Amino acid sequence: MAVETRNARRSTRSRSVRPRGVARREALLEATLRIVADTGADAVTHRRVAEVAQLPLASTTYYFESKEQLLTAALALAAERDLARLHALAEQLRKLPDDPEHAVALVLDPAGELSDEERAAGRRSLLAGYTLLLEAARRPALRELTRRWTEAYMTTVAEQLQRAGSTRPHEDAQLLLAATDGLLIAQLSTGESIDPRPALARLARTLTAAAR
Asked: Of 89, 99, 158, 178, whose CB neighbour count within 10 A is largest?
């Protein structure tokens, strides 16, 4: 009965969320991602999230009953945004002549001059994303989200590689994504800012050329 009562309260809350409530919830998740990027997942607490979001502690406990819920919802937000970018770009690339380097465009942010603020935001986003993906190894609640996120990339990148000539698109997508993760994690851990695009473009061309 207690469980049913809690579920009923959650259902009532979700139906009564107003735009202001949606904004507050998102601000809390943004704060969670910032803490994860800056300090790590262990530093996430209701109190710390409320402080970073500059919201009352009661607002944090209202939307999220546990740290697990905070981390899961934050990962869901990061995945949702990233996959929206991925699918929008994939749709644009389908209208262009086939090119193996399009697969690289899917897994990296657009090239170009970035401000210091944009670079810092991009680094923070990468750190938060990779940290939460690694947390899935310890927190089963995160695993389904990470699986769906990874599968979406696998499917989209494999489709682009197949269009470019790959006869083993799934395996080639695995290699390209693994190389991307390796280069980006190395960059984050060393503080270097070498552009990984040339190496990944060479890999994509090699994979599709070898398949012909």
From this structure: 158
Q: Which residue's structure tokens are 């290699």?
A: 175
Query: What's the chain's Rg over C-alpha atoms?
Result: 20
Q: Is the pLDDT confidence value at 121 over 90?
A: no
**Range from 97-101, 109-113, 147-151 carrying the lowest mean pLDDT:** 109-113
Distance between CA atoms of 178 and 175, rounded to whole angstroms? 5
Instruction: Assign residue 182 a region (left: φ > 0; alpha: ψ between -120 and 50; beta: otherwise).
Output: alpha
**Which helix (H) or strand (E) segment is 152 a member of?**
helix 143-163
Q: What is the dihedral of CA 187, 193, 194, 196, to 10 degrees?
A: 60
What distances in angstroms separate CA 30 from CA 70, 136, 139, one per listed residue?
A: 10, 19, 20
Quickly list DSSP for 24-59.
Answer: HHHHHHHHHHHHHHHT-GGG--HHHHHHHHT--HHH
Kindly report, residue by residue over 15-62, the tens digit of the pLDDT: 444 457 789 999 999 999 999 999 999 999 999 999 999 999 999 999
